[in-house]
């Protein structure tokens, strides 16, 4: 089982790096499954909590947040859109992928929902898994993985070195 996580203390950096590495690997012909953040989408909110993701390898692009109004501080994740993204990944090219990427192990995954089943399916198929993990979800991620994920620096060269290494 080859499983790695990427964490950056810089807001948005993990998303940027994972999207860029996905683009780079796809250009090299690597078959991908999972989701990455759509970096072309400009958030309508100052805190950036308005997000679209691109289902790998070829879409669709799905808005996974809902507009709760400018004054709302509630979670903007749209569970229906997350379920749509999960279904798109699981019904897509998952079994034939060379790498599964999840932009963020977040609140849905911490609660055992979201992309947990897709991660499990990738592992069952022997597909390496690369996951972005924010500090607030780190403990839940470590519990989910049993501490078996390798921490990789949020640098493309480090991610590629992990992917091409024999180390899990």
Provide key terms for this protein.
Rossmann fold; 34% helix; alpha/beta
Give me the secondary-structure topology.
Layout: E1 3-6, H1 13-27, E2 32-37, E3 52-56, E4 61-63, H2 79-90, E5 99-105, H3 107-110, H4 116-124, E6 129-133, H5 138-145, E7 150-152, H6 156-164
Parallel strand pairs: 1-6, 1-7, 2-5, 5-6
Antiparallel strand pairs: 2-3, 3-4
Q: Brief overview, please?
A:
The chain has helices spanning 13-27, 79-90, 107-110, 116-124, 138-145, 156-164, and strands at residues 3-6, 32-37, 52-56, 61-63, 99-105, 129-133, 150-152. By secondary structure, the protein is an alpha/beta fold. It has a single domain, classed as Rossmann fold (3-Layer(aba) Sandwich).
Give a structural overview.
The chain has 168 residues and is α/β, with parallel strands linked by helices. It has a single domain (3-40, 51-64, 76-164), classed as P-loop containing nucleotide triphosphate hydrolases (Rossmann fold), CATH 3.40.50. Helix content is 34%, strand content 20%. The chain has helices at 13-27, 79-90, 107-110, 116-124, 138-145, 156-164; strands spanning 3-6, 32-37, 52-56, 61-63, 99-105, 129-133, 150-152. A 7-stranded mixed β-sheet has the order 4-3-2-5-6-1-7, with helices on both faces. A hairpin with a 4-residue loop joins strand 3 and strand 4. The termini are close together. The mean pLDDT is 88.
């Amino acid at each position: 089982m080859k499983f790695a996580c990427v964490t950056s203390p810089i807001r948005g950096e993990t998303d940027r790096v994972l999207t860029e590495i996905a683009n780079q690997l796809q250009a090299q012909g690597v078959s991908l499954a999972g989701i990455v953040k759509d970096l072309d989408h400009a958030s309508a909110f100052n805190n950036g909590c308005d997000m679209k993701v691109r289902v790998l390898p070829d879409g669709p692009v799905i808005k996974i947040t809902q507009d709760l109004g400018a004054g709302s501080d509630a979670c903007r994740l749209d569970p229906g859109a997350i379920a749509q993204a999960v279904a798109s990944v699981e019904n897509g090219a998952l079994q034939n992928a060379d790498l599964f990427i999840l932009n963020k192990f977040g609140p849905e995954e911490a609660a055992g929902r979201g992309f947990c089943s897709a991660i499990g399916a990738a592992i069952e198929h022997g597909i390496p898994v690369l996951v972005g993990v924010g500090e607030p979800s780190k403990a839940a991620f470590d519990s989910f993985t049993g501490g078996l994920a390798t921490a990789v620096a949020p640098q493309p060269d480090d991610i590629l070195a992990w992917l091409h290494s024999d180390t899990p």
